[in-house]
Amino acid sequence: MAAAKPKFQLGQYFTVPLSDGTFAHGYFTEVANGQMYLTTIHDLVTSTPDLPADIEAAGIAIPNLRIGGSEFRRMKPHEEQILGKSWIKTKKIHSGTIEPGERYFIMGANSNPRVWDVLRKDEMRPASEAERATLKPVGFDFPPGTRKTIEKALSSISRQVH
Q: How many other β-carbons are positioned within 10 Å of the β-carbon of residue 64?
């Protein structure tokens, strides 16, 4: 039996419909950890969902947005009013080096927190006090929280709509 085609590819670009009718753009920085997807969101807003030709030259607004993938599912009209429109996968793959903005996260209960490497190169190990204080817990926000996070990040910076 053939292996299932991966849902997303490392470096694959996507477009995020924003609540004001404009669009943000980002790409996947980790897709194989099985718990969440890591993405980078560019500091760029466009008036159409099309990726600008110079997208890779755009700055970064969010270097490590954690999502669950439900942002890409087909939304029903009544869901769109609450969750926003479905994010759009593109066929474009980022041409540069792809790395997650954060590699280590805290996993487990407060009584036994462990450091988890999303790239799975390091074994899981107990977290030090410093790591407990600085690393984020494993997890992600759900729509519409992910879109709202992007909109908040993009609203706090000076930008022009392309």
A: 16
Strand order in the sheet with 114-117: 104-107, 114-117, 125-126
Question: Is 13 in a helix, a strand, or coil?
Answer: strand
Q: Would residue 56 be called left, alpha or beta, if left means φ above 0 and alpha means ψ between -120 and 50 degrees?
A: alpha
pTM: 0.89
The pLDDT score that the predictor gives to residue 6 is 66
Cα–Cα separations (whole angstroms), residue 77 to 93, 94, 109, 141: 30, 32, 38, 21
**What is the maximum span of the chain, computed from C-alpha positions, in angstroms?**
51
Q: The tokens of 79 are what? A: 């869901």
Extract long-range pairs of 54-57: CB within 8 Å, 24+ residues apart: 55/13, 55/25, 55/92, 56/94, 56/95, 56/96
Tell me which amino acid residue 5 is. K
pLDDT tens-digit series, residues 40-71: 999 999 999 999 999 999 999 999 999 999 99
Q: What is the 3 state secondary structure string of 51-79? A: CCCCHHHCCEEEEEEEECCHHHCCCCHHH
